[in-house]
Amino acid sequence: MSTDTPPTGPPPPPFGPGQHLLGVGQLDRGSLGGLLDLAESLRPVGRGEQVCRVLTGANLGSLFFEPSTRTRLSFESAFHRLGGSVVSTTGFTFSSMAKGESIHDTARVVSGYSDALVVRHPDTGSVARFAEASVVPVINAGDGSGEHPSQSLLDVFTMRAELAARGKSIDGATIAVLGDLRYGRTVHSLLAILGLFDEVDFRVFGPPALALPVEFFDLVRASGNSIVECDSVQEAIAPADVIYCTRVQKERLSEEDEQEVHLEGDLLNRAILDEAAGPESVIMHPLPRDSRHDSFDLSPDVDEWPGLAIFRQTDNGLLIRMAIFSVALGVADRVLEDLRPAPWLTTR
Ligand code: NCD
Question: Are 312 and 39 in contact (CB under 8 A)?
Answer without folding.
Answer: no
